[in-house]
Write a structure and sequence with these properties.
By secondary structure, the protein is α+β, with helices and mostly antiparallel strands. Helices cover 24% and strands 24% of the residues. The chain contains ten helices and 15 strands. The strands form three sheets. Strands 3, 4, 7, 8, 9, 12, 13 and 14 form an eight-stranded antiparallel sheet that branches. The chain has a five-stranded antiparallel sheet with strand order 5-11-10-15-6, covered by helices on one side. Strand 10 and strand 11 form a beta hairpin. The termini are far apart. Residues 4-22 and 55-70 have low confidence and may be disordered.
Length: 308
């Protein structure tokens, strides 16, 4: 399945030349100006087109990936999930499981962002010029040559609806349509002394296997504050970013039975009282909302922002 992401001339003009005639800054430069002491993770770099790409009038095709499957904000467990708890258990565990020697059955896929077919970030000026709203659906379909009733139409509609959904109590959320917007949201909520972290996977894995937690589990960030950005399904890179306090973040070294080593990022939500009581995590872990922290490892290409 693919979207054709083409460049309308007016969009290209917005990228190459600003309203005052100046050359617009690429996302890499904006990152450096806002976060001079924070290196850009390779997985994020891979979501950017090379500097100069947009001034050359190129087009790209983007394959849609599967997004984060368990949205606690509103969804109860589906019948399929309830009948396949073995698969659902790959995503959730308890905070007291994060200790040396603990065995977990997991699936870690290496980031695919360096693949040209993966949806990449648009420059902010282009992204801001493209409508991203349910009441502008006709315009969106026209821009991306999407037919009503197609799979692409359902994906676009569902992503926009999810982004417009009201957050749960205490949640600060935003669907960011550019890397610059992600940086702005993270620094607005956490300050400028932040860093972005993602999983580091040694080699590609396509099968579920047993991993053992190695020595070196450690807490990251300060004051139980973090922003988690989940990659969404869309023709170009869109991330659903949200901040719910308190949230704990851990760096977890893992060793697979095949020798694969993963430096995983674990996120633990310590207040689940506002989650849907029928959420799959409660079914799998056999706990009640608001009783114990619920943890999950970060899916590939998803990002956690923490204060240094």
């Amino acid at each position: 399945m693919a979207f054709h992401l083409f460049h309308i001339i007016t969009f290209l003009m917005l990228v190459v030349v600003g309203t005052n005639g100046a050359i617009l800054l690429p996302p890499q430069v904006y990152w450096k100006s806002m976060l001079p002491n924070t290196p850009m993770p390779k997985a994020i770099t891979n979501l950017l087109h090379p500097v100069g790409y947009w001034s050359e009038g190129r087009a790209t095709w983007a394959d849609v990936e599967i997004g984060w499957p368990f949205d606690y904000r509103k969804y109860a467990a589906s019948d399929t999930q309830l009948h396949d708890k073995s698969n659902s258990s790959l995503y959730f565990f308890l905070e007291n499981d994060l200790h040396y020697g603990k065995k977990l059955n997991m699936l870690f896929t290496k980031t695919t962002s360096n693949n040209n077919n993966v949806p990449k970030f648009l420059p902010k000026e282009v992204a801001d010029s493209i409508p991203f709203s349910s009441n502008k659906m006709e315009n969106i379909l026209h821009i991306f040559s999407i037919k009503k009733g197609s799979k692409e139409y359902e994906i676009v509609k569902n992503t926009i609806n999810d982004c417009e959904e009201k957050g749960i109590k205490g949640e600060e959320k935003l669907c960011v349509t550019s890397l610059e917007s992600m940086v702005d949201f993270a620094t607005l909520k956490l300050g400028n002394n932040v860093e972005a972290i993602l999983n580091e996977v040694e080699k590609e894995s396509s099968e579920i296997q047993e991993y053992v937690i190695a020595k070196g589990v450690k807490r990251l960030g300060k004051k139980n504050k973090a922003i988690v950005c989940h990659k969404e399904n869309y023709p170009y890179a869109i991330f659903f970013c949200h901040k719910i306090d308190p949230t704990k973040v851990y760096s977890v070294p893992l060793e697979g039975v095949d020798g694969n080593r993963v430096k995983a990022v674990a996120v633990c939500h310590t207040d689940t009282s506002q989650w849907n009581p029928k959420h799959i995590s409660f079914q799998v872990l056999k706990v009640e909302p608001g009783t114990v922290p619920i943890c999950h490892f970060l899916p590939h290409d998803h990002v956690v922002w923490i204060s240094k």
